[in-house]
Amino acid sequence: MADLNTIASLCKRRGIIFLNSEIYGGLGSVWDYGPIGVELKNNVKRLWWKSMVYEREDIEGLDAAILMHPEVWKTSGHVSGFKDLLADCKNCKKRFRHDLLEKNVCPECGGELTEPRPFNLMFKTFVGSVESESSEVFLRPETAQGIFVNFKNVLVSSRKKLPFGIAQIGKAFRNEITTGNFTFRSREFEQMEMEYFTRPEESDKWFEYWIQERFSWYQRFGIKKENIRLRKHEREELAHYAKSCYDIEFLFPMGWSELEGIAHRTDFDLKQHSSVSGKSLSYFDEEKKGEITPHAIEPSGGVDRAVLAFLIDSYKDEKVRGEKRVVLELHKELAPIKVAVLPLLRNRPELVKMAKDIYRDLRGDYKVSYDDTASIGRLYRRQDEIGTLYCVTVDVESLDDKKVTVRDRDTMKQDRISVDMLKKYIEEKPK
Ligand code: GAP
Fold this sequence. Notes:
Shape: globular
Largest sheet: 7 strands, mixed
Number of helices: 13
Bound molecules: glycyl-adenosine-5'-phosphate
């Protein structure tokens, strides 16, 4: 398995992920996605949305704002509970998460540490022109609360019956103290969350269902069986809102770590918001002829962690005819670029014209790239490193026989295909 430095250097070299504000030295644990990375990230989000919202009749989408009424975070328990215990070194002044310290001395300089103090992970800002306590708001640390406070709006407008879910993808922010490990723990990141509302007595069944569903989703898009596992939370690990929780863990280079959590949140959030806001967040159960508060099952995944896992899992470093080849064997639905069109000679106008015509013809259907800036060997290497499925080369013979060479990323097998059959050929390929 590739280490994180190898992945990070590939990401920078090939326009997948850059350090944020790099020309100013970077902002700690904040990352930008480049031209190739944004395609990969969009593909991850699109596939999640497709499997959650389009392919099911029981889930609706939502896009709530990042800023929310400050009461939301008091009621959800985040103001009082979303904290890490930190200790400061009295000597070098560095800060550490107390639960990760092996000894009660500074791991950097051996200095004496202060007593641990709670530190809230939410970022604060202000609404309006006056910076005072009453105008203080938070950048959301999870997207889930936007779903809970909109429960009634979605229920009434979509006329859904239990069980049903509300899915959302969006940015979340946490002022993380333990950072590092590339994008794994970022201060600004994206979540893909879904709250599945059920009758209380059916909630355990749906909890099991969503654990399995999400576990198989990652494997469907290429994560290898041996690199993914489920881990049940110990009682003392559980978040304040959860009755039970499973992590889907991926074998990252630093060890098994959380990719996604599936939590049984019971009726905690709906009941809390209802009691503090004074607004009903219940559901009229026609079978029971009465109001009930549904329970919520929450699969909550990180887009950035999924992108990182797909990158690590698909990375392959091999020797081909004595030369090193790096290839991302990404699933066809994830590959940032499906086809690259590569003219063999860039100083032959008729050859360039033919290649550009092919490029224009293909690009409406999927993301296609055109590159003539290096020798064919280098062009292939570039495309392999970003996981491009097919390279189409146009050569001198193409001008006469109207055929092109199509090279498969994984097998490197080449087929000679008639230009007018190219689209069909690519569409009919299994990947
Ligand atoms: N609503 C539940 C919730 O937020 P969480 O386990 O704190 O639960 C869910 O976060 C997912 O969000 C994690 O499994 C992870 O994929 C992602 N995530 C959390 N913190 C992150 C961070 N600092 N950087 C990147 N992804 C993060």
